[in-house]
Amino acid sequence: MPLYILPRTSIDFVQEKCMERLNHSLEGKVVIITGGASGIGAESVRLFTKHGARVVIVDVQDKLGQELAVSVGEDKASYYHCDVTNETEVENAVKFTVDKHGRLDVLFSNAGVIEPFVSILDLNLDVLDRTISVNLRGAAAFIKHAARAMVEKGTRGSIICTTSVAAEIAGTAPHGYTASKHGLLGLIRSASGGLGKYGIRVNGVAPFGVATPLVCNSFKIEPNVVEENTLASANLKGIVLKASHVAETALFLASDESAYVSGQNLAVDGGYTVVKS
């Protein structure tokens, strides 16, 4: 079989076209990112807008959210205050997005909380209720109202939720957080079955330990300590997990590059759950 070698100019052309496609993978798409003012959410806002999306940043951190919208460009991003535990506010956030942009293509339900580690013998049920209210009920509310908007407009949308390695295995996170993420994974799988007939995909993205403000502030530890702990227990060596890695995975699930992927929980954990489960 003869070997065909492309001229250098042809190689350059192919590379240029591939990069052009990659850099515009969300061109024209309208996206809601909850918990979008910091951490994984903020990284995703920057990345998604870079790839052509118009993003509505949903959060309760008003100053951070507004500053982020300005920094990426108010023609690309806007901020909307919303407490995900309040269904009326969730419905209004979706309505704001559709009224502003005419449609909704992608929901990245990323808002979450994590409580301190305690023994199951000392579990505070009020704290448990709060964790489940944000991590599970809040995601359910956004999935409900985002999917309604997508169905009404006939949009073959993508819904992504930030789960965790704690959605698959126990012992890596506090009890309430683990329970909420297990529940969220069940919701993702159930919703993917219910929304498939409308052409709407539902997936999870499951990171290992990431040094986000949420984690660092909740456990009162410095980012470098989180990264050192993750690296020490990780299966994949030689790379430190960053929020940007999670954002890049969410970008794949948001784009048409994953057009036939639904009901999955895509781990960004360097193989940790496979080896430890």
Keywords:
single chain, 7 strands, 277 residues, alpha/beta, seven-stranded parallel sheet, 50% helix
Short description:
It is built from ten helices and seven strands.
**How many individual β-strands?**
7
Q: Which strand order spans the largest sheet, edge to edge or round the barrel? A: 3-2-1-4-5-6-7
Oligomer: single chain
* Overall average residue pLDDT: 90
Number of helical segments with 4 or more residues: 10
* Alpha-beta content class: alpha/beta
Report the sheet with the most strands, covering strand number, pairing sense and barrel closure.
7 strands, parallel
Strand content: 5-15%
Helix content: 40-55%
C-alpha Rg (nearest Å)? 19 Å
Element order, helices and strands?
HEHEHEHEHEHEHHHEH
Pfam family, one: adh_short_C2
Protein name: 3-oxoacyl-[acyl-carrier-protein] reductase
Family: Belongs to the short-chain dehydrogenases/reductases (SDR) family.
Subcellular location: Plastid, Chloroplast
Structure explained in plain terms:
By secondary structure, the protein is α/β, with parallel strands linked by helices. It has 10 helices and 7 strands. The chain has helices at 8-23, 39-50, 62-72, 87-101, 125-153, 175-195, 213-219, 223-233, 243-254, 272-276, and strands at 30-34, 54-59, 77-81, 106-109, 158-162, 201-207, 265-268. It has a 7-stranded parallel beta sheet, with helices on both faces. It holds the Pfam family adh_short_C2. It is found in: Plastid, Chloroplast. This is 3-oxoacyl-[acyl-carrier-protein] reductase. Belongs to the short-chain dehydrogenases/reductases (SDR) family.
